[in-house]
Amino acid sequence: MSAGRPTRPEPLPQRAPAVALPPEITERLLGQVDRMADTLARHLAAEIQLPPGFRSQAYLRSVVQACRDGIGALVQQLHDQRRHHTAELARLGRAGERQAEMGVPLEVLLSAYRLAARVVWHEVIGEAGRVRELEPATVLAVSEQVLDYLDQISGAVGRAYLETRERLMRQRDRDRNQVLQRLLVGDVADEVRRLAASLSLDLAPPYRVLACGAPQGIDAEPILDSAWRFAGALLVGDEPGTWIALVRADADVTRLARAGTDAMLRALGAGHSGGADVPLRAGVGPVAARLEDIAGAARRARRALAVGSRLHPDAVIHDEREVGVFAALGSDPEELRAHVDHVLGPILNGSRSRSAMLLETLEALVTSRGVNEAATQLGIHRHTVVYRVQRLHDLLGVDLDDPAQRHRLWLALQSARLLQ
Known about the structure:
Shape: elongated
Helix content: 55-70%
Strand order of the largest sheet: 2-3-1-4-5
């Protein structure tokens, strides 16, 4: 060996069990592995409640093979007077991977290993006990070895099962999202339908399409998925901070919004306050009668969310039938800005603080039934509002008691919000 090169430590020899079965017994057990495996397989088939889909000959043959592998490894260890190897456990643990891939429920797998422990102990220890001269201490020691082996192999199988199931669930989620994402871009090819069927994803329009927005830093998808499970909603991530939901055409959107808001508030914590920073906003699009209609309905839902959030920042629900007309207005920002400057320019040209104060007062006036109600809405004295009314009259040259002028000013205020 060259100087200066690190050397690997020699593996420590495995300690043989202090008490072992006589070789003649282990030799006999080695010859009975197939019989014991068949016995165990029959017990499993008779006593474990398998789902109907697993009563096939192919699956039962795989059970027999797993029994043969496990019992054979145990008897060989007893014969060689050694403990199990890590690689050996890993190989036997792959049975858990196969069960997870086949969709065998975890409770069925655990029940099977509890039954296997009883049957294997009876077969191995029963065979050893038939030799009358065998010391009770030997039977006890071998019992401990058998039970330790069964604990180790069931642990290896359980870990492999859970890791595989988690991997399959993540892959299933990715495939499900892929199907929904493709629907959002108008892809309804047969391949998409086949993938949905393989995932047991029941695509059954008509759907009401919602675009949901949440505060930055919050992963709303699992929260809404749980809150809207009662409605069978299909949820998929869209743009950053936005999710698209497909719900039944007759779904109660108000109830969904309330359930989603409550769930988001719980996730954000009790200290979260409402107001402009509402935890959930929903743009309500039209009903998609066919899968081919989902992409267009999603575009209108997104537009309703974007426009409604600007016009009514305190609201949760923004229906495209109500705010869609404003989206049309906002499609030409230059013309919209020219209109706002024409109507509100004298206010907007002042200092930022004074402009904000006058705009707030103007909106309160055009959305209330008079000075007194506007003062209450603003939380200021009536005389202050009267003074501001005069100031607005001087700047804009309008009569705020004229319904047509109030409507014109209200529309300009909404247009200004669209430009924000």
